[in-house]
Amino acid sequence: MDNLSKLGIIAVELLSDEFKSIDGKEIGVVLVNSASSLDADQTFQKTIVKDNYFPSPSVFVYTLPNIVIGEICIKHKIYGESSFFVSQNFDSTFIYNIVCDLFSRQGINTAIVGWLDFIDNDYLASLCIIKKISQQNLNYNEMINFTIENLNKTINKDI
User: What is the pLDDT, as a whole number, of residue 69?
Assistant: First the structure.
């Protein structure tokens, strides 16, 4: 398993046990980073140099950044929609709109959202769980409203 996937697995484990009791079809995953899968790309590149040619499918598979979502979904039995975006910065407005679409059109009630980056042994994971909650189930002491500003404060504070 590549470093980005390991980071993703550990970061989601540390989030909360709360989402683990939710039907996997109702959970979505939306992740962003700036390095894509460059760490795995560099590892694979070393296997295809002319003087030391030994390409490995088990290394090659991790040269796509969305593989981390696949690893997270397999580990936690998540079957909902997922998206991985590569951007220099975390765009709270863009991610807010993606999550709103998941909640309104895709049957998703919970989303694991955030920034997950690993390159050259430098890493950052800033994730949160966003839940669609009905009015009668509100507990204002334990939550913040899902707004662009709060998403920006929650994720961008670490980036």
Answer: 98
Question: Burial code of 81-97, b = ≥16 C-beta within 10 A, e = fewer?
Answer: bbbbbeeeebbbeebbe
Q: State pTM to two decimals.
A: 0.89
What pLDDT digit, counting tens, does each position of 103-135 carry?
998 789 999 999 999 999 999 999 999 998 765
Partner residues linked to 32 by β-bridges:
85, 115
The position carrying tokens 């140099």 is: 49
Cα 114 from Cα 152, distance rounded (Å)? 10
Cβ neighbours of residue 113 under 8 Å, at least 6 residues apart?
29, 30, 31, 95, 99, 127, 128, 129, 130, 151, 155
The two three-digit tokens of residue 115, written as one number: 């920034």
Domain locations in the chain?
3-156
Judge: domain 3-156, CATH 3.30.1490.20.
no
Report which residue type is found at 46.
Answer: K
- Beta strand 82-86 pairing with 27-33: parallel
Cα dihedral sign, 109-129-17-141: negative
